[in-house]
Amino acid sequence: MLDRLQTFARCIAPAILLCGSGVACATPEPIHPWTLEDVLSIPHVTDTALAADGRTIAYILRVANQAADRTEFELHITDFRSGGDKVVSRSLWMERLQTVPGQKAWSVLADQGAGVQLYRVDGAAQMSSIIVNPETVLVGSVDGGEFGYGFTGPVRFGIAYYDWSPDGRRLFYSQLRQGTEKDGVRHDEDVTRLTLFRRRGPAVTARFFVKEGGKAPIGLADVPPSDRVGRFLGGMPAWHSDALDFSLQTDDLNTPHVARYRWHFGDKTPRRLDDEPTLFSDAIAGPGGGNLFVEGEGVAARLKERQPGGKTRDFGAFNATLSDRRSPGHWLSPNRDFALVAVRYPLEGRYGLVRIERNGGIKRIEVPESLTHCSFAPSVAEGVCIWEGIARAPAFVRVRTGDGKISALQSLSSRHEQITPLKTEVRDLVNAFGFLARNRIIFPREYRTGRRYPAILVTHSTDADDRFGALDLQWDYPVQLFAERGYVVILANEPHASQSALLKKADADRNMCGGETSPAQIQRLGWFNQIESFRSIIDALNSDGVIDADHVGIAGYSYGSQIANVAVTQTKLFKAASSGDGGFLEPAAYRTHRCAYKAIFGGPPGDPAASANYTAFAPSYRARFARAPVLQQIAEPHETAIDFHQALRAANVAAELSLYPGETIASDETHFFHIPSNRLAAMTENVQWFDYWLKDIPPPSGLDGNRRERWEAMRALMPD
Amino acid sequence: MLDRLQTFARCIAPAILLCGSGVACATPEPIHPWTLEDVLSIPHVTDTALAADGRTIAYILRVANQAADRTEFELHITDFRSGGDKVVSRSLWMERLQTVPGQKAWSVLADQGAGVQLYRVDGAAQMSSIIVNPETVLVGSVDGGEFGYGFTGPVRFGIAYYDWSPDGRRLFYSQLRQGTEKDGVRHDEDVTRLTLFRRRGPAVTARFFVKEGGKAPIGLADVPPSDRVGRFLGGMPAWHSDALDFSLQTDDLNTPHVARYRWHFGDKTPRRLDDEPTLFSDAIAGPGGGNLFVEGEGVAARLKERQPGGKTRDFGAFNATLSDRRSPGHWLSPNRDFALVAVRYPLEGRYGLVRIERNGGIKRIEVPESLTHCSFAPSVAEGVCIWEGIARAPAFVRVRTGDGKISALQSLSSRHEQITPLKTEVRDLVNAFGFLARNRIIFPREYRTGRRYPAILVTHSTDADDRFGALDLQWDYPVQLFAERGYVVILANEPHASQSALLKKADADRNMCGGETSPAQIQRLGWFNQIESFRSIIDALNSDGVIDADHVGIAGYSYGSQIANVAVTQTKLFKAASSGDGGFLEPAAYRTHRCAYKAIFGGPPGDPAASANYTAFAPSYRARFARAPVLQQIAEPHETAIDFHQALRAANVAAELSLYPGETIASDETHFFHIPSNRLAAMTENVQWFDYWLKDIPPPSGLDGNRRERWEAMRALMPD
Question: CB A185 to CB B703 under 8 A?
Answer without folding.
Answer: yes
